[in-house]
């Protein structure tokens, strides 16, 4: 699930991933997008918009589901974070720090 899983529609049907017994959490790709936007030389949105997205995840997910999100800033499905940040080590360090201090389970790939 690449976006907010609380309102997912797949195959024309609303999915209830975050309700009941289906999933305990999902990969938190929205967090990856937020971190990269914050650290980008040319962000695609404002800091306010990034914070709004992070807060909407907090509001949309049940508490336990939210704290079980698998936070990542790089996976086999995404561009490497080093490349996305154009090899800027200081920004990479900040990205890793954010990964570890924000709610959820940090995952390094």
Automatic annotation (TrEMBL):
TM annotation in the entry: none
All residue ranges annotated as the Glycosyl hydrolase family 13 catalytic domain in the record: 15-109
InterPro entries xrefs: GH, GH13_cat_dom
Biological processes annotated in GO: carbohydrate metabolic process
Superkingdom, taxonomy of origin: Bacteria
Protein name: CAZy families GH13 protein
């Amino acid at each position: 699930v690449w976006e907010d899983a609380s309102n997912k529609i797949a195959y024309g049907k609303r999915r209830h991933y975050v309700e009941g017994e289906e999933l305990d959490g999902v990969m938190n790709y929205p967090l990856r997008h937020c971190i990269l936007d914050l650290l980008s030389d040319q962000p695609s949105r404002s800091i306010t918009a990034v914070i709004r997205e992070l807060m909407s995840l907090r509001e949309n997910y049940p508490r336990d589901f939210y704290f079980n999100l698998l936070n990542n800033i790089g996976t086999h499905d995404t561009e490497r974070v080093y490349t996305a940040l154009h090899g800027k080590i200081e920004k990479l360090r900040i990205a890793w720090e954010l990964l570890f201090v924000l709610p959820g389970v940090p995952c390094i790939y």
